[in-house]
Design a protein that fits this description.
The structure holds two protein chains of two kinds.
Chain A lengths: L2 E8 L10 E6 L21 E3 L9 H5 L5 E3 L3 E3 L9 H5 L5 E3 L2 E4 H9 L2 H7 L2 E5 L7 H13 L4 E5 L5 H8 L4 E7 L5 H8 L4 H14 L4 E8 L7 H14 L3 E6 L3 H8 L12 H13 L4 E3 L1
Parallel strand pairs in A: 2-8, 8-9, 9-10, 10-11, 11-12, 12-13
Antiparallel strand pairs in A: 1-2, 1-7, 3-6, 4-5
Helix pairs in contact in A: 3-5, 6-8
Chain B lengths: L3 H12 L3 E2 L2 H13 L4 H15 L20 E2 L8 H10 L12 H15 L4 H8 L2 H8 L19 H21 L6 H37 L3 H14 L10 H18 L10 H15 L4 H14 L9 H6 L8 E5 L11 H13 L5 E6 L5 H12 L6 E4 H11 L4 H5 L2 E2 L5 E2 L5 E2 L5 E4 H8 L4 E2 L4 E2 L13 H33 L4 H4 L4 H4 L10 E9 L1 H17 L5 H9 L6 H9 L9 H18 L9 E4 L6 H7 L29 H9 L13 E4 L6 H17 L4 E6 L2 H9 L8 E3 L4 E3 L5 H8 L3 E2 L3
Parallel strand pairs in B: 1-2, 3-4, 4-5, 8-12, 9-12, 12-13, 14-15, 14-18
Antiparallel strand pairs in B: 5-15, 6-7, 10-11, 16-17
Helix pairs in contact in B: 1-13, 2-3, 2-5, 3-9, 4-5, 6-20, 8-9, 8-12, 9-10, 11-13, 12-15, 13-15, 15-16, 16-29, 19-20, 19-23, 20-26, 23-26, 28-29
Classes of the chains: A alpha/beta, B alpha/beta.
């Protein structure tokens, strides 16, 4: 039985594929996109996250910490270099202001929750979505979870950066029950890609090519484009992207304008993250038209 | 787009603050002097007839459907036969300025009202009688918001005739029935004479209403004479024509059918302070008339729509003047004027017709708080109809509500004694309560509400109300001696049943008071069984009768019991004595404990099997018990999970509760989880709410679900809302109504009410203009969890 660190099981996720879905967020991602909206799920290790809005400044966490890593001002300030993630602070935090980011769960436990909304999936064409973190780094876990759901006639959608071994992606995409894949293109320009995600986009583009050719007939591939003003919204670059996508003919493309939800979350796990701007509404419209003119169905989230 | 006529009538409606006028009061007072000494039913009929014969008649500019309940547009009557001068007199100064449900009163009217009330009505209302006949403990429980008790200040109302049958007979038909039955009476006993008196009274009422309609015909004709505009003159002459035919005779077309229904409905509100009278299966009753007119070309779809909209706006005119407590607990002038559409016919085939869709269109364009639309959903409901209703909801109209035929049929056959055909023809009587179709059911829905969060508080104080220090409930044992959650629960259930018993005893006394003093005649004449049996609805004349038992705070009770089980008995983090002390201090200095109670134990509404199981178990024990009781007429008590906004008033008197709720905060809304505690998304909420065991509740369960509009955009949003409704119904949910509105909009409406005057929200089984609600009720709606994907 495979286990993984699960950041969240989000029931009622209508934006993560068709219909009403339950999205399972796994912890651990090989990319480190500077605009990531789930920065707490990048590290493959357990972390403690602080939610300032919930804190009542009772100070019990500071007393409980065996490393003396917490000082109160007026809420807890954690010296992360001292923190061993023993979670004793979270244990005494009744307000749930300090909580572990994830829980170690078996695929079977996760499937137990996913199955509860089966009737909602049936009535809306929904199902399971595995997101992250990066699903390709949890392939065995994902495979078991997809299989367990399929036994219950629940279909699955993968939400991936595409950064992982092609053979793994190929294997997951071929699983019975996988109906949809949400596939991120962060930037077509490799320099931009390297600078902002920490890795090259070559593997990602190769994998997308493989995926559309080999599985495009059976699995719906939805390309997702996070758009950050001044970073990856250059019109010439996007025009090339649109043409490249048109050649691959995915089911559709969705533009995801930047939002700064990740900035606060990064702060709350003791990391730092820059703040960006989304493209303007007009710019998004123009980009949408660009894709549509190239023959790619395009939506704005 | 609505026509200029409709826009102007709507604007006039929204621009007019309701007012209280003296006319009915003065006419009824004269009538009381004139007819005193007649047998009760005849007396009541003659009073109503005298009012109808003498009241001022107004036809509003541009109106096509005519008849107002008072001598002012959006006017309201005081009916001191029911409501006591003890509060009416001091309230006269507060009506125009109170926080909620305000009424304007002109100085002349105010003087007339004050003199009349002071000189003629002191101590004579049913409310005054209630003070004499109810035990002191009951009165104190009511005034301390431990329970409510129905029929103390108003009539039973909730009249839902089968207008199809009624229009087929015409009032002339009812009169003929009364005469024939009276001719056959043996006249050899008190019972026989009472039947004769009742039917005589019915004849008096029907004849008075026919005269009233004919007088409207005269009013319209007179207006036509002085009318300069030729088109309007023709309209007025047509109105005169219609009013001279209905409700005496069977309508000849759709316009006459609407006017027929309106006159009957209007008369309920002149006769008595009626409330929650609704129109039953409107599309079934009036659909055939529409079809004929459309086929004959006498109406186009547009002209029919305009007529229907004229009628719909009318449904918001009648008002019931309520005291300050009821105006908070039933906030926003609700009258529960409900139009039910869709569903199936007697053979189980889909029954929707042209009028079904026309009703949705009419309402969608109008966006007013009355009438409330109810769409019946069954397996054969056309996708087009379902989707149309869902689209309206998704756009934020808060209308229609959706009802599950599957559960309603079950309830009507198993709990209400209806036949299969009557079950397929089921109607709502009240807000969500299913009754056999055919117009022979009296719901008398509101026997009373038990504040179950208060019951837990009493159990934790051995029956003493910590607010007053008085022993008001039974001594259920020293709470610090309890050793398990089950013992706490047992104590709470004993308190609960003690107070439901108190309601039963009190309500039965109130029913007797109404049956001997204030039978409501016209509203009985139109309900199947009354004329045959020669008895009013109040005396048990209707063929089917139930009385509703309500509940507030059940989710708080369940959440609190689980918190006690986990934190006191399992984890032993605090002792029972420490917990009770913390509650009595309203968690002062104990915020950490409050957080633990909030975050650690499971909460109802998150698809947690333990919470849901306990909820179902407690509710089935309560409902099984109260549903075995009979009222003074022999009708069964019927349980419902409905709070209206009594959860706000009842919350005020309950101290902090072990679920982490602070003292004075509202209790959970209707059958929903406690506000903000359902954090696992709407699918989990829906599964929990469906698990209360709704088929066991004779009067159903009202469920409010709120979506953030960002989560349900576009076509996909509609598919998702529809999917949620379908799934809820598959799980056995009986009713669902959906608000799609975000916090920002509601808060903006609080700040700048003038810009949001037509923002309509679902409160309970009714809708209200958000800006007409007072702040506490507005906040309670904002606190309802707005479901949004991450």
């Amino acid at each position: 039985m495979t286990r993984a660190l699960v950041g969240n099981i989000q029931r009622y996720s209508p934006e993560d594929g068709p219909g009403i879905r339950t999205t399972v967020f796994l912890k651990g991602c090989p990319l480190a996109c500077r605009w990531c909206h789930n920065p707490e799920l990048i590290s493959p290790r357990q972390e403690v996250i602080f939610s300032p809005g919930k804190c009542i400044s009772c100070g019990y966490c500071a007393q409980a910490c065996p490393e003396n890593a917490i000082t109160m001002d007026p809420g807890p300030v954690i010296a992360r270099e001292k923190c061993t993630v023993c979670l004793q602070c979270a244990e005494v935090c009744y307000a749930k202001a300090l909580t572990p980011v994830a829980a170690m769960m078996s695929a079977r436990e996760v499937a137990g929750t996913v199955i509860r909304d089966k009737s909602f999936y049936e009535n809306t064409g929904g199902g399971l979505t595995i997101s992250g973190g990066e699903v390709l780094t949890h392939a065995d876990f994902a495979e078991e979870l997809i299989g367990l759901c399929y036994e219950e006639h629940i279909t699955s959608c993968l939400d991936t950066s595409g950064y992982g071994p092609g053979a793994v992606l190929d294997r997951l995409a071929a699983l019975p029950g996988v109906t949809d894949i949400l596939y991120d293109i962060k930037a077509l320009d490799d320099d931009v890609h390297r600078e902002y995600t920490g890795v090259s986009n070559r593997l990602i583009l190769e994998n997308l090519d493989m995926l559309t050719k080999k599985h495009g007939g059976r699995v719906k591939i939805h390309v997702r484009l996070p758009l950050i003003k001044g970073v990856n919204d250059d019109p010439a670059l996007l025009e090339r992207t649109a043409q490249a996508l048109a050649a691959l003919s995915p089911a559709d493309a969705t533009l995801i304008p930047y939002h700064n939800l990740g900035v606060g979350k990064a702060r709350n796990i003791g990391a730092a993250m820059p703040s960006f701007e989304p493209p303007s509404g007009e710019a998004l419209q123009r980009i949408q038209n660009l894709f549509r003119q190239s023959g790619v169905a395009c939506f704005i989230l | 787009m609505a026509t200029p006529r409709i826009l102007s009538i709507k604007k006039r409606f929204l621009d007019t603050v309701p007012s209280i006028t003296a006319e009915r009061l003065l006419l009824a007072t004269e009538a009381h002097r004139k007819f005193a000494g007649e047998p009760a039913p005849v007396f009541r009929a003659k009073v109503a007839a005298y009012v109808m014969d003498h009241m001022t008649q107004l036809i509003g500019e541009d109106e096509l459907i005519v008849g107002m309940p008072t001598n002012a547009f959006r006017g309201a009557n005081l009916v001191p036969e029911y409501t006591s001068t003890k509060w009416l007199l001091p309230e006269l100064d507060r009506f125009p300025v109170r926080d909620r449900d305000r009424y304007h009163i002109t100085p002349e009217n105010r003087k007339l009202i004050q003199d009349c009330l002071e000189n003629e009505w002191a101590g004579r209302a049913v409310e005054d009688v209630a003070d004499e006949i109810l035990p002191a403990a009951t009165r104190s429980a009511v005034s301390n918001d431990v329970i409510t008790l129905g029929l103390r200040t108003g009539c039973s109302g909730e009249t839902v005739p089968d207008y199809g049958i009624l229009m087929g007979k015409g009032l002339s038909g009812l009169i003929a029935e009364c005469r024939a039955l009276n001719d056959d009476e043996p006249r050899d006993s008190k019972a026989s004479q009472e039947r004769i008196d009742f039917r005589e009274a019915c004849i008096i009422s029907c004849e008075a209403l026919i005269r009233f309609a004919n007088r409207y015909a005269d009013t319209a004709r007179a207006a036509a004479q002085s009318e300069q505009d030729e088109t309007r003159r023709a309209e007025l002459l047509e109105i005169a024509n219609v009013c001279s035919r209905v409700p005496e005779q069977t309508p000849a077309g759709f316009h006459e059918a609407l006017q027929f229904v309106w006159f009957i409905h209007l008369a309920f509100h002149i006769e008595a302070p009626a409330t929650a009278c609704s129109f039953g299966r409107f599309d079934q009753a009036l659909g055939p008339y529409l079809r004929t007119d459309l086929a004959a070309g006498t109406l186009t779809r547009d002209s029919a729509l305009e007529l229907l909209q004229c009628f719909f706006i009318k449904t918001g005119e009648p008002l019931e003047v309520r005291d300050s407590w009821y105006s908070e607990s039933f906030a926003g002038y609700p009258m529960w004027a409900l139009v039910m559409v869709g569903g199936q016919d007697g053979e189980g085939r889909d029954a929707s017709n042209e009028l079904t869709y026309l009703c949705l269109d009419a309402s969608s364009e109008l966006r007013m708080s009355e009438p409330v639309l109810a769409v019946r959903i069954h397996k054969g409901t056309p996708e087009e109809l379902f989707r149309k209703g869902v689209e309206m909801v998704r756009e934020g109209q808060a209308n229609p509500g959706f009802f599950n035929d599957d559960v309603a049929l079950d309830i009507v056959m198993k709990r209400k004694g209806g036949s299969e055909a009557e079950a397929r023809n089921w109607v709502i009587v009240g807000c969500t309560q299913p009754q056999p179709g055919g117009g022979a059911a009296d719901g008398s829905p509101d026997a009373g509400y038990v504040n179950t969060a208060k019951m837990l508080e009493l159990a934790l104080h051995n029956g003493v109300d910590p607010r007053t220090g008085e022993q008001i409930g039974p001594r259920t044992g020293d709470p610090t001696a309890f050793t398990s959650m089950d013992e706490v629960r047992e104590a709470a259930e004993k308190q609960i049943m003690y107070f439901y018993e108190m309601i039963r005893a009190g309500y039965n006394r109130m029913q007797i008071c109404h049956m001997t003093r204030l039978p409501v005649i016209l509203a009985s004449a139109v309900i199947g069984g009354c004329i045959e049996s020669g008895k009013s609805v109040q005396e048990g004349g209707a063929r089917y009768q139930t009385a509703g038992m309500f509940i507030t705070g059940p989710a708080n009770l369940v959440d609190s019991l689980l918190a006690i089980e986990d934190i006191v008995f399992r984890d032993k983090t605090v002792t029972m004595a420490e917990l009770i002390e913390a509650l009595d201090r309203n968690f002062e200095g104990d915020e950490r404990l409050r957080q633990l109670l909030l975050t650690k134990p499971p909460k109802f509404g998150n698809d947690d099997p333990r919470a849901d199981g306990l909820a179902k178990d407690i509710l089935s024990r309560i409902s099984n018990e109260v549903q075995s009781w009979r009222d003074a007429r022999g009708g069964l008590y019927s349980f419902t999970m409905m709070s209206q906004t009594v959860n706000v008033s009842h919350g005020k008197v309950v101290g902090a509760t072990p679920d982490g709720r602070r003292a004075g905060e509202p209790l959970n809304d209707n059958s929903s989880p406690m506000m903000g505690r359902d954090t696992a998304g709407p699918t989990a909420t829906v599964r929990s709410v469906a698990s209360w065991g709704q088929r066991n509740f004779g009067d159903g369960a009202l469920f409010n679900l709120r979506f953030d509009p960002r989560g349900v955009r576009g076509e996909k949003g509609s598919a998702i809302i529809e999917g949620v409704i379908k799934t809820y119904f598959e799980y056995g949910g009986q009713h669902i109504q959906i608000n799609v509105v975000d916090d920002a909009t509601l808060r903006a409406a609080q700040r700048k009410p003038e810009d949001y005057r037509d923002l309509v929200v679902r409160v309970a089984g009714y809708m209200a203009y958000f800006t007409e609600l007072d702040k506490e009720v507005q906040d309670a709606i904002i606190y309802r969890t707005p479901h949004l994907a991450s």
